[in-house]
């Protein structure tokens, strides 16, 4: 019985993504456990660098477009902290499980919004 490879998308391709998150996702991809299906960053150079270096199938500069065009099992958010909440809410509503770089949000209210959205989206 084949195990399903989880489709992973990374939003934010800066230093923390390229030094910590992506190398570990790539290791899991090399083991056949996940597919690095998309990377998104507002900086085209960072997006293209991450796509090539980590063998990611698709590159985007807009996270909403990325979430609309492809299905992801997991979205790993590695953006600046102030963008965590809106991107997490969008990813949850798109049906993905969400990992968020710390801190989870800029305020308790934002964190509560994220948790409530996760519960509502099951």
Descriptive labels:
about 120 residues, single chain, alpha/beta, 5 helices, 5-stranded parallel beta sheet, 5 strands, about 45% helix, globular
Quick overview:
This protein is α/β, with parallel strands linked by helices and 122 residues long.
As a percent range, the share of helical residues equals: 40-55%
Largest sheet: 5 strands, parallel
Cα distance, first to last residue?
27 Å
Strand line-up in the sheet with most strands: 3-2-1-4-5
> Which range does the strand content fall in?
15-25%
Report the average pLDDT across residues: 95
Tell me, briefly, the overall form.
globular
Number of strands: 5
- Uncertain runs with pLDDT below 50, 5 residues or more? none
Can you characterise this structure?
α4 links the parallel β4 (74-77) and β5 (97-100). It is globular and about 35 Å long. It has a five-stranded parallel sheet, with helices on both faces. With 122 residues, the protein is an alpha/beta fold. It has five helices and five strands; from the N terminus they run βαβαβαβαβα. α4 (84-93) runs parallel beside α5. The two termini are 27 Å apart.
Question: What's the layout of helices and strands?
Answer:
Blueprint: E1 6-11, H1 15-30, E2 34-40, H2 44-53, E3 59-60, H3 63-69, E4 74-77, H4 84-93, E5 97-100, H5 108-121
Parallel strand pairs: 1-2, 1-4, 2-3, 4-5
């Amino acid at each position: 019985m084949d195990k399903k490879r989880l489709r992973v998308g990374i939003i934010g391709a800066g230093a923390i993504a390229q030094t910590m998150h992506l190398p570990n996702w790539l290791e899991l991809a090399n083991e056949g456990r996940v597919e690095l299906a998309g990377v998104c960053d507002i900086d085209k150079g960072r997006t293209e660098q991450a796509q090539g270096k980590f063998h990611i199938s698709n590159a985007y500069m807009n996270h909403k477009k990325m979430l609309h065009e492809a299905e992801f099992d997991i979205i790993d958010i590695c953006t600046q902290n102030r963008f965590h909440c809106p991107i997490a809410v969008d990813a949850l509503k798109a049906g993905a499980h969400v990992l968020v770089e710390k801190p989870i949000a800029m305020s308790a209210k934002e964190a509560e919004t994220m948790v409530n959205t996760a519960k509502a989206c099951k």
